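just leaving the lab so this will be short. what follows is a protein written twice so to speak, once as letters and once as structure tokens for the fold. can you read through it and tell me how you think this chain folds. anything you notice is useful, everything is just below:
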Amino acid sequence: MFNHLFTADPSVDSHFAFSSILDEAQDAASGSLAGTIARCDLASSSQLIADTQSASSAQASNVSRSSKGSKGVSYPKLRKIEKLIEYNCRRQVVAILNEKLYEGELSSMLEAPVVAPEIKSESCVFTNCTVWHRNQTDFIVDADFLLTNILVEGESEDTLTDFKIYASIFFTSCDGIEYEIQEVDHLSRKPVRDLVKMDRHVIPIFTFDFIDANIDEVWNDRIPGSMEDANKRKPNLLADAYNLDICRLPLYNRPNDEFVLFFQEGDIMIQDPPPAGSKELPPPRTVPVSADTIVLNTNVNPYDDYALAIYKACFMYEWYYPFFMFNGLTDSRLDLIERTQFVPDKVSKPKDPLSFIPAAVHRGGFALMMPRSITQKKVWREYQRVSAAPGPIGYINHAGWRYEEVIRIVSSSFCLKNFRVRQRLVQLGCIAARGALNYDPDLGRYFIPFAFSMDEDALDWTRRKVKYSEAVPTYSITRGALYYLYKKNPALQKLLSLGVFTFLDGLVCINSDEYVQWNNEYYRMTPSANADVSACCLRFHTEYMNRRNHYKFDAADYKKYACLFDKNSSASIERAKEEHTRILAELPESFPDALKYLMKHYHPKALTPKSLAARTGLSEVVITRYCTDPHAEYLLEEVILICLGLNLPPCISGALLEKANLSVVRTGPFAYYGFIIDCLYLESVGAVQAFVKRLGYHQLADPHYYEEDNPADQEEKWRDAM
């Protein structure tokens, strides 16, 4: 017979009002499933709540006192299965034991002649439990108990003995949380279950490999024959199989939520688009949502199809339904869960139990969209075919080019976007795919594919269990992401300002003739450098959070690359340094003479005012005036464009700017001036102007620039250029 515990409405639940701050802190810090063993049986729920609230106040006071000068940790307030067992199930276990005692079955179960008149409540002590995921709505708890001071018949006299037992408790979350104690027996006969474990908050515990390995079974169970027939493997059909409705709404102030899954009836805030002919948004409003509904956020997904969001919602419904029901939540908005602050000890820092849910849902959505068993076979066949074909003219047919072709073929076969397929291949261990189809948001095209060495350090992150938010190595980076890192990382800024590295083809490459060559009208990496960028390019670390890649470049990275400037640096770098020193020594004193010298002697093509004007976007009149008039008024942005047109490294650009009595800053809202000089000097002026525009600033030397368009007001916009 099922015992109804509570519904999804937290207002009707009185059993979990006793959770305390310190209890959360201690249990989380220890990481153990079992909480503190309670050895007393309280007479009533009201007494229990009163006692715990009193203890909570004292503990919170202690935490507050210890938090002075310390940084608190945010931790979600979630229900814990141990409390449910301790204060609800344990008493029924005692009742079952007494029933067995009266029927004469307890002695047989414990394998000892029990002569106690009854099993008292305080003699049954809960010690530990294991939670098992059974299916979409049900889970099983194997709870361990210690029976203390049980009177057992002895040869000469009766003795008090302790016994270890377990209870198998079946839970269902179909209509709130209900449970039934199915079995109570000696601990030695505790069953070994081939099921997925869950943590104390009823969150499934599994690896990414487990997700990929079990997706075929999910498809076949929900839609028979779908693994053989691609037409049956559609997101809408899978949602129908789960009896989930789908609606599209412009969610208000939820830029990181692709969807919200409603398990129970609820409501959500939306922001309607402005009326026709108006730019003013109407006020947000609340709309009701029925149970078992996937709400797709049209404010997030308009650029992409909704397939992945639907797959993620279906995966969440399959694996996390008991968690949401157990914790009294009506929908999947984890950010709405109440949190508490406490100060952890110096030994251990508690892990947020919710941190892995976005990772698992993200991986599960991709696994449903592109099952591993099918995807790997398709990729392997296509990779073998393109490997036998000749490579692009002027480049080595390396893994980057091959995976670019494979991804395009697979994306067409699966009817998916290229970047989705690329993400999935990287998930499945095709690390070389990271060198293909890296998008250039400034120019609206892809960077040139590249390859890199599969050394131990590069492969390490695939062999261990990488967390959702753990940084992984990458060489490719956009101009916007590099600028954001340049502004906040002094070590990287110092490294790039030396002029030995330059941004090229989505990479930060060593600027020497060994790795960079002039190709008629622009600079490109040499074929050998493009085939192994790990030998000449900076490597960053990136982590994917809130639908965006966040890049890192720490002190260890700086030490690794700073050695390039020691006496053991390569001959090509030394030649570049010597050439720069020679140019600086021969540079005339006046700005016009210095400019004419650089146009004639530095650039691979001897430039005229007309050709330099074409390269910079400035007028030929401006270039001619700068070359002839020593008293001309030099404008900073025009001189920066000239430096870009000549592809001058930072040291020579700085000297030319100094002769014009100008300088650039590398901090504050105008830091992009210094960034352009330090990092983008081999880029085309068109690419730099597109980059500046994406940051939200006016383009360099724009005649339509208005002074009120203050770059300081655009500070947030350049973050989106990552």
Observations:
- Residues 10-70, 459-469, 705-722 have pLDDT under 50 and may be disordered.
- The longest helix spans residues 45-66.
